[in-house]
Amino acid sequence: GEMPKDWPLPALKAQAVAARTYALKQRIKQQKKNSWFDIKSSEASQIYLGIEAETDKTSKAVKLTKSLVMKHNGELIDAVFHSSSGGITEDSIYVWKKQLPYLLSVQDFDQVSPKYQWDVRFDQDKLRLAFPNISGVTNIKILKISPAGRVLLAEIIGPRGKLTLTGRDIRKRLGLKSTLIRF
């Protein structure tokens, strides 16, 4: 579900290898935690739409890449992926606080994605709910951004004070798609 089924076979094959690597790596992680499941079928892990969503082309991509996975220094990589990066991916250190040598920021060519660029507007009621301890928002100052342009730290100014929050916290409070944001 992370890629249109009608995309070229080489793209589907690359996605099959990435998804397989991701799933196997998650299985190893979950076994160490004694978890009841390996991955979720939502955006929290990777989207799997079920057997009814499979096509001859997607099945062919899986079969042609059977047993292929991505490794670094003999270990399965964290093969994270997403549908759109907004034009540039992020170094892993700015996402998970650990720099992996194979998860470096690169330019992405996803400008035709419907998720490439987006706008959200909030009314005062929504902002008061999101930032109750300062009674809403009158201004937001970006204090620190990553080299890829994502908000790392910002000051939220409200009628009753200020908060300094990470981009991740702001994203969560406002239900945003990314921390590649401007106000």
Q: Your description of this structure?
A:
With about 180 residues, this protein is α+β, with helices and mostly antiparallel strands. About 30% of the residues lie in helices and about 15% in strands. The protein is built from 5 helices and 5 strands; from the N terminus they run ααββααβββα. It has helices at about 10-35, 55-65, 95, 125-130, 165-175; strands at about 70, 75, 140-145, 150-160, 160-165. A 3-stranded antiparallel beta sheet has the order 3-4-5. The protein has a two-stranded antiparallel ribbon with strand order 1-2.
List keywords for this structure.
183 residues; alpha+beta; 3-stranded antiparallel beta sheet; two-stranded antiparallel ribbon; 5 helices; 29% helix; elongated
How would you sum up this structure in a few lines?
It is built from five helices and five strands, in the order ααββααβββα.
**DSSP summary: helix tally:** 5
Question: Total strand count, please?
Answer: 5
Indicate the structural class.
alpha+beta
Low-pLDDT windows of residues: none
What characteristic shape results from the CA principal axes?
elongated
Mean pLDDT: 90
Order of helices and strands: HHEEHHEEEH
* Helix percentage range: 25-40%
Question: How can the largest sheet be summarized?
Answer: 3 strands, antiparallel
Gyration radius over CA = 19 Å
Our measurement of the CA-to-CA distance between the termini, rounded to an integer number of angstroms, reads 31 Å
> What proportion of the residues form beta strands (DSSP E)?
5-15%
Strand order of the largest sheet: 3-4-5
